[in-house]
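Record type: monomer structure entry
Structure origin: computed from sequence
Chain ID: A
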Amino acid sequence: MYKMSSVTTGPVATNCYTIINEDSNEAILIDASGSVARLLSAVKEAGATPKTLLLTHAHFDHMDAVDKIREEYPEIEVIIGANDAPLLEDPSLNLSYSFMGDPVTTKADRAVSDGEEIELIGIRIKCIEVPGHTIGGMCYFMPELTSLFDGDTLFHGSIGRSDFPTGDGDALIENIATKLFTLPDETRVFPGHDSETTIGWEKANNYYFS
């Protein structure tokens, strides 16, 4: 049985998620910004061990707490899309310098590619690269949980910005339509900011596609 929770934290109110396998007491973290105490509150309360941190993309507000989490859990594996991995080490591309005036860098332990399937804490995960917000933004689809964690790709009634370095608005719209809107309509979408939505609702109502 799996339990999911979220906290909204960090300098621009990022949604960060925790999924716990209650049988094995292992956890996945998805994105990491702001307060480490809040990010780890669910695993601490459950006495669970976070095995993996999935990063949806390399912007500072999704990864500025990575190294602080590593201090508490040195064995945690950090995963990001292959094409976004270099952005983690470049403050001009991960926006930490321009937004915070304080460069933030980190490294991933593993890079995944478009279409790759991985299994973490008993959950099958399909990695779907959706370039546009960043060059290698990665969405994580979990069929058994009917859930998609998509970072800043698709929002409730909107889409991510594409005016940052490596962004491409036309590519973002095309990739959402061809890669995300082919998922089941009932798929719950958990974005990096704002509220939860579903694929079916977005197909029918999103301003950019209706």
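Annotation 1: The first strand starts at residue 2 and ends at 9.
Annotation 2: The longest helix spans residues 169-180.
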